[in-house]
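User: My instructor asked us to take a sequence, write out its structure as tokens, and then describe one feature of it. I'm not sure where to start. Here is the sequence I was given:
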Amino acid sequence: MRLICNPALADHLHSPSQKVRVITEAWFAGEGYCLNCMSNRLNPTTAGTVARDYLCPVCGQPYELKSGAGRIGAKVVDGAYGTMMGRIREGLAPNLLLLRYTPDWLVTDLTALHAVFLTPTVVEARPPLAPPARRAGWVGCNLLLSRIPPDGRIPLVRDGIVMAKSEARRLYAQSERLTELKPEQRGWTALVLTYIRKIGKPDFTLAELYAYEEAMHAAYPENSHVRDKIRQQLQVLRDLGYVEFPERGRYRMLL
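Assistant: Let's start with the prediction itself. The structure tokens for your sequence are:
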């Protein structure tokens, strides 16, 4: 994967945002590949296609590219709230690609967010646009990366170092097991997996996971039985092959 973009492609444009879009989308069209199959090519979609910038010509997997010059923070600005929520509920959310570049158009970071981890708890509605705005009342959204476990964030490029395609595809395939769950069921599973990863060790106790009860309740404020839900999701993760129960109250990560 070459990490140099071609800024000359946008010489005819004046808008900075349009320049970024044209330059980075052209780069990814030439260097991107499918994580879901062995295709080393992705086809750009037609202008105006909702929530997808590229499609794999072999398996049809959709991808959406988000580019910026700054560090990737805890939130990523996305498009219309209703559109993203609808895609998630229908099981049609795209894989997101977060690209970071330098002022001289070198790609330094490219992170793929597996679509299976885009759940309703990850999507935060932004305030509606005020009446003076051209699209007054329109509601956009932010994506809360803190609620996506490391499993769902694949560093295709990190600090200028390119991950091997074989490894990227292996990590992607590992998370595919969550497709066994319905889209509306994945939110709690992904959330519990996120906080298991935060514990930071393969063997952990139920008490250590309960320490994140308040944070989980913040994601699901309508649920007053968080501990019950945690235990339930540990069983789901066991059935999916992520966790085993060596003894009562103690757990071990397998992946």
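For the description part of your assignment, you could build on this observation: The domain at 187-253 is CATH 1.10.10.10 (Arc Repressor Mutant, subunit A). Try explaining in your own words what that tells you about the chain.
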